[in-house]
Design brief:
Number of strands: 10
Helix content: 25-40%
Largest sheet: 8 strands, mixed
Number of helices: 5
Distance between the termini: 15 Å
Structural class: alpha/beta
Strand content: 25-35%
CATH topology: Dihydrofolate Reductase, subunit A
Order of helices and strands: EEHEHHEEHEHEEEE
Number of domains: 1
Strand order of the largest sheet: 5-4-3-6-1-7-10-9
């Protein structure tokens, strides 16, 4: 069975974005980019909510073509262009895009079927509403949380509206020179 892995930057007080979706507080460095490259190499599907997909799709398809593109931009652009993308959206049903499927309606059944198909991991970046939906249906298998040394005070929380307790197993911790700490958790069933 394929795993859904959520890879998300969060503030030390648990926000994944500011009140207006701002993410200018996120820190990164080359070591962090290299580390995240391991996740993309092990995934053949990206999963997004509509808003995050629109942001990603406006940038990543051509990021490698920009003058002075970084090693990360070249690599992530190639990955983005090669993988299947699943977008959870009730408003884009029937849209046709290359290597992109829009899911609405019975998301639980559709994602469960996707997890049961052969393939690599399914990787999710960002997408608060989509994450909340997957949490509600207990479809997430692992979290990689990249804790940034900042307190936002308010904004969009990753773990919002959980209806019941979720037990996690801590698997790994890794610190980066940019002061970000990665926490790896799997879900205990």
């Amino acid at each position: 069975m394929r795993k859904i892995i959520v890879s998300e930057h969060i503030s030390a007080d648990g926000f994944m974005a500011g009140e207006n979706g701002e993410m200018d507080w996120i820190r990164f460095d080359e070591a962090l980019f290299e580390f995240v490259g391991q996740f993309t190499a092990a995934a053949d599907t990206a999963l997004y909510g509509r808003k995050t997909w629109e942001m990603m799709d406006a940038y990543w398809p051509t990021a490698a073509d920009k003058p002075g593109a970084s090693k990360h931009a070249v690599g992530h652009s190639a990955w983005y262009n090669s993988v299947d993308k699943i977008v959870l959206s009730n408003t884009m049903q029937g849209e046709q895009r290359m290597k992109t499927n829009f899911l609405g309606g019975d998301i639980r059944s559709a994602i469960t079927a996707l997890k049961n198909k052969p393939g690599k991991n399914i990787l999710m970046f960002g997408s608060a509403t989509a994450a909340h939906t997957l949490m509600q249906y207990q479809l997430i298998d692992e979290y990689w949380l990249f804790v940034n040394p900042v307190l936002l005070g308010k904004g969009i929380r990753l773990f919002e509206g959980l209806e019941s307790k979720v037990d996690l197993l801590a698997k790994e911790t890794k610190s980066f020179g940019c002061s970000v700490t990665a926490l790896h958790f799997t879900i205990l069933q």
